[in-house]
Each structure stands twice: as structure tokens, then as C-alpha cells.
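Mods, move this if it's the wrong board.
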Amino acid sequence: MAMRILVVEDEPRIANLIRRGLAEEGHGVDLAASAEEAADWLDTSSYDVIVLDIMLPGMSGIEWCRNIRSQRVATPILMLTAKDAVADRVAGLDAGADDYLVKPFAFSELTARIRALTRRPKEVISAILQAGNVRFDPANRDLYVEEERIEMGAKEFRILEFFLRNPNRVLSRSMIAEHVWDYDFPNVTNVIDVHIGSIRRKLGVDNATVSIQTVRGTGYRLVTAS
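Not the wrong board. C-alpha cells:
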């Protein structure tokens, strides 16, 4: 399926390699070398995916990601980082990115992650999910703790939805990966752990009465405070 993709990358060589490769697969690609250029593109076009570098001139990719999420732009974001450090990954996911890829990367992994970000759930989802004081509408991606709306990235929503559909059930990392990503990659465990850490922080800020517990050696479980 052909997609329209915005690539925000200030290194011309990398940006052109990504554009050329995606164009050869039939996708439409626009390039932006800064957050300001990217904002101009978003004002005039809609995209299926945004590929966003963290290190940009002026406003960083993390700042811009946070800005567009605050404006309720829900386009899936794949963040590129040259630093394979947990802190950078956490910052990107907390800002609203849905996945990340460390440079240098194989182009096949880039395209696999893009496909995974745009893959919709196979089942038709309409029912409101609720646990404790957390209420989630999967169809519209509206998440509330009490009356406070919570912003999350697409992958965080999918993970939380999986837990809400399986309360008190221990979910292994492989179960989460299969449900949310539908493909395998070497550092899936780290990605899942970082996403869950981000979800915990966002729920904790607004005093949610549900929490995601770590079940040592097995996985995670969503529980409601008694």
C-alpha cells in the first residue's frame, strides 16, 4: 500500500537515501530539514507516517514532536536517533513518538517499522474500555484519567489497550510484541520496556487508580487499586 511520508532530517545524504528508497517502493515522500519546514508541510498536507530525526537545527525533533502532539496531531512518528541511550529513547517516547530507530540502520528495518506503525488492528473496535478511573475510547484514541485527557503515542495506546482488554492477566513481552508490532526485531524487549515505563509515568502524573505491575521473569499485569 502506497503511503505519504514526511521525512524530517537535516543531513541531506541520509534524507535523500531515505526518500529514494521509499520512492522506489511507491511511496510519496516530502523532505524537511528543520522543525519549521516540517510544520509548513503539515499545514498543507496530511501524512500516513512522519520519520523524525532527534537532532535538528533550531527546535529539536523531541520538542517538535511534543508540540504537534499537544495540537492533537495523531500521525504515527518514527524517531531517528544517533544515540543508543535509554534516556534519548525515553525522551522521544515521552514526547509522543511511537517507535524509534538508532542510526545507522538497515533500510529494510526502517520500512518494516513504517509498515508496523500504519498497520491497523484487524478487529473492529468501538467499545469504551474502563478500569478504575481510566477510560479509553480505542476508536478515537481518547484516553482520560477522571476528566483529564492524556496524550500518548500510537504504540503506547495499543499497549495500554491490550492491557485494558486483559485486566489482571499476565502478558509476556512476546505476547505484547505480537499484538502491537506484528513483527520481530532484535531489541523488542527494550522497546516494550521503554514504552511501558512511559505509560506508567503518564498515568502516574494524573493519579490513575490502575497500574502496570512487573511480574518478574514473566511479563506485566494491569491491576486496579483496591
